[in-house]
Amino acid sequence: MSTNGFGNISIMTRSMAWLIVCFLVLPITIVFAVSVTDKHYLSLPEQGISFQYYEKLFTSGPWMTSILQSFVIACASTVAAVLLGTLCAIGCWRLGNRASDFVRMLMLVPIMVPTIVYALGIYQFWIDLRLLDSYTGLIIAHIVTGLPYVVITVSTALAGFDPRLEQASLSLGASIGQTLRLVIIPNIKPGVISGAIFAFIHSWDELVLALFIAGRAVFTLPRRMWDGINESLDPTMAAVAAVLIAITVSLLCTDAYTRSRRA
Amino acid sequence: MAGLEISNVTKKYANFRAVDDVSISIKRGEFLTLLGPSGSGKTTLLMMIAGFVQADRGDLTLNGQTITHLPPEARNLGMVFQGYALFPHLSVFDNVAFPLKVRKQSREEIATKVRAALDLVQLTALADRLPRQLSGGQQQRVALARALVFQPHLLLLDEPLSALDKKLRAELQDELKRLHRKVGLGFIYVTHDQEEALSMSDRIAVMRSGKIVEHGTPTDLYERPNTAFVADFIGKSNFVSGSVVEHRDGGFVFSGGGVRFVQRTKGPAPAIGAGVSIALRPEKIGVLRSGETAENELAGTLTEWNYLGSEFRLVVDAGPFGSFSVSVPTWQSDLAPEIGAAMKLGWSAAAGMVVAQD
Ligand SMILES: Nc1ncnc2c1ncn2[C@@H]1O[C@H](COP(=O)(O)OP(=O)(O)OP(=O)(O)O)[C@@H](O)[C@H]1O
Ligand SMILES: [Mg+2]
Question: Given this model, what pLDDT does residue A1 score?
Fold first, then answer.
């Protein structure tokens, strides 16, 4: 036991920190534990570990369809959000005036407005545009709400980009397109990748929009989980959650890895 | 005409003229330095030549063709930036190959030219390194190779050596001069270091508040400056002023503060009664021993001295004439300076330089 006061403080802050970590991580670990239960209802395993619910998940038609749908929607909306968000961030950066600050602020609106309000608005629109319950409809909604993540991460990357590199490229005879492709994009790649990962995760576990503007033909994974929880407390849910978490965590690890390689 | 001609260019920021009605030309193969204090508009002028800043007025003509409104990528001018601006994600080889790649040259052509450019700056061995694995001096050389490899019409350099320590600077100055002779291109070199400007340039243009105050060869500007600003900015100068009282053969006499001074001139002497200023280099003023005389003499007291090995640097208070800075070579002097000692300064009629006051 340390005798000086500072030692005690550091022990206290440390235990606090660990407490918070447990608070954040324990619910997640419980999901993993429940997913391998040997019982017929949501509970911790008692006699032994069983992977029956994973088997059920990967052989069940509806679950697999939802996973596939979610994956397609997440990929499509990520690609579009990354393209548009990157170009928007670069455009604002190049202009560098008040109007561009305003545009950047505007891009954050989908994060600032509560999703449910946003979803209501989009619902109204989609009725008129006949986009309800369609891939296109949900993809567009996810593009719009995923855009802010890309704009933020790419703008952050651009803040650290030396504008003289752009001038150097132009002075060496590269066109603006070549400069974008050969100099700017490679140097802000970590920001673009982060943006892509966040946009993907955003679409992958988005529920509110999926509830409002889809429901029959398009039935995403979070949507099916929501219904599953409401109707039956089948442990398959825990297996789905575990898969979902595993994918998200591996994406975040990829993000951390690309950042650390850059540094 | 082969070369760059700058006519009456002006750049305003709000109501402030960063570059104000500048005209100058540079011939092919010439080494022109833009010299001036911080904020005098050197970078702005260079950026206008490169095409990154649009001139509000005036014209730029390169080899007989107007380039005033061409975008930077169409001007074919090499540029070395302050801080080098090497592409951090590309190797040395790929950095140098960049201007050739965007010009869609063939692989073999690129390889040959890049090798030649790296040879020129003696960096062939480091072709595979990334910029962050190079020293400051080596990065500087890569930036040079990259700016020269595509055979630009002209090379623009903005304080390329300012980030380096003194010894490396001197080394790279020599190398730049050697490179300049070898490639035979026009160089426009920006610096605020007057020694660098004197030692490297064919011609120096001195800038102040957006204007070119004077331009000429280093010896012109050092030995025959026309303005007090240039006399003081390039090397140090002491100033003596007064009004002309008498004309003499090849010169004139002026009087200031109750003392008469003689001054030789090459051109016509100023009119009797006209105000006149002369600039005196510290090394052209001597400390007179007792009994010694000079054409011009001034009494004062020593207020400060420094021993610099090869010379004594003295500061002498000459009453109404202000402080004089004097340098005396140690090898020809038995000087034992003592603060507060009375001193007699002397200089010949040919030592002073008549300058316009501003
Ligand atoms: N984009 C700009 N907007 C407003 N003022 C500017 C801008 N760029 C330069 N200036 C002003 O123009 C003047 C000249 O600037 P410039 O950079 O050309 O000076 P410089 O001679 O290169 O100085 P230094 O030796 O410090 O690099 C400065 O007073 C500067 O504040
Ligand atoms: Mg400058």
Answer: 44
The pLDDT score that the predictor gives to residue A262 is: 60
If asked whether residues B41 and B114 sit together in one domain, one would say: yes
Tell how far the Cα of B41 is from the centroid of ligand 2, in angstroms: 7
Chain A residues in contact with B46 by the CB 8 A cut-off are none
Ligand 1 binding pocket (C-beta < 6 A) is B 13, 18, 36, 38-44, 192
CA dihedral A224, A225, A229, A235 (to 10 degrees): 120
Where chain A has pLDDT below 50, the residues are 1-3
Q: Which of A166, A171, A175, A183 to mutate to test the interface with B (most CBs of B within 10 A)?
A: A171
Sheet with B3-13, side-by-side order of all strands? B16-27, B3-13, B57-62, B65-66
For chain A, state the CA radius of gyration: 23
Domain at A116, CATH number: 1.10.3720.10
Three-state DSSP string of A71-140:
HHHHHHHHHHHHHHHHHHHHHHHHHCCHHHHHHHHHHCHHHHCCHHHHHHHHHHHHHHHCCCCCHHHHHH
State the CATH number of the domain containing residue B330. Answer: 2.40.50.100
Query: Of B176, B205, B232, which residue constitutes the final position of a domain?
Result: B232
| Mutant choice from A164, A167, A170, A172 vs B, greatest count of B C-beta within 10 A | A172
The minimal CB distance from A172 to the residues B51, B82, B99 is found for: B99
Give how many domains chain B has, as a whole number. 2
Interface A:B, Cβ pairs < 8 A? 66
> Quick check: B235 pLDDT over 60?
yes
Whether residue B71 is found in the same domain as residue B123: yes
The reply to whether B87 and B224 lie within a common domain is yes
**Same-domain check for residues B45 and B149:** yes
CA B348 – CA B284 distance, rounded (Å): 8
Would you say the ipTM is above 0.95?
A: no
At A135-187, the pLDDT tens digits run 888 899 899 989 999 999 999 999 989 999 999 999 999 999 999 999 999 99
Residue nearest to atom 25 of ligand 1 (CA): B38
Q: Which atom of ligand 1 is nearest to the CA of B14?
A: 4
Measured CA to CA in angstroms, residue A232 lies from A37, A39, A57 at distances of: 16, 14, 15
Tell me which of B173, B199, B232 is where a domain ends. Answer: B232
- For residue range B99-117, what is the model confidence (pLDDT) as tens digits? 999 999 999 999 999 999 9
Q: Cα A23 to the chain's mean position, in Å?
A: 22
Tokens standing for A166?
């752009």
Please give the pLDDT value at position A6. 58
